[in-house]
């Protein structure tokens, strides 16, 4: 049975997948990412996935989630 906080099965499935592996935020469709944001709120992986999708700089991404740009060194260096 779907938890009372979910309005539809698709939202429930996206949230459950996210709870198992937050990295899926980067792979979701725009619609599913919005569903996730609406239910889960502004969690770091969700905000960063939105920023990545919108082409934000590493500096902007770091500022938005409260970390240091060097935390993204693995992306900058191509690891």
Structural account:
- With 79 residues, the chain is an all-alpha fold.
- Helix content is 57%, strand content 0%.
- The protein has helices spanning 9-20, 30-40, 44-53, 58-65, 73-76.
- It starts with 8 loop residues before the first helix and ends with a helix.
- The mean pLDDT is 88.
Features of the shown structure:
79 residues, mainly alpha, 5 helices, elongated
Amount of beta strand:
under 5%
Low-pLDDT regions: none
Summing up helix and strand content along with how strands pair, one would put the structural category as mainly alpha
- End-to-end separation: 41 Å
Rounded average pLDDT:
88
Task: Give the overall shape.
Answer: elongated
Helix-strand topology string: HHHHH
How many β-strand stretches? Answer: 0
The major pleated sheet works out as: none
Number of helices: 5
Rounded to an integer, what's the Rg over CA atoms?
A: 14 Å
The amount of helix comes to: 55-70%
Write the SSE topology.
Elements: H1 9-20, H2 30-40, H3 44-53, H4 58-65, H5 73-76
Explain briefly what this protein structure is.
The protein has 79 residues and is mainly α. The chain has helices at 9-20, 30-40, 44-53, 58-65, 73-76. The mean pLDDT is 88.
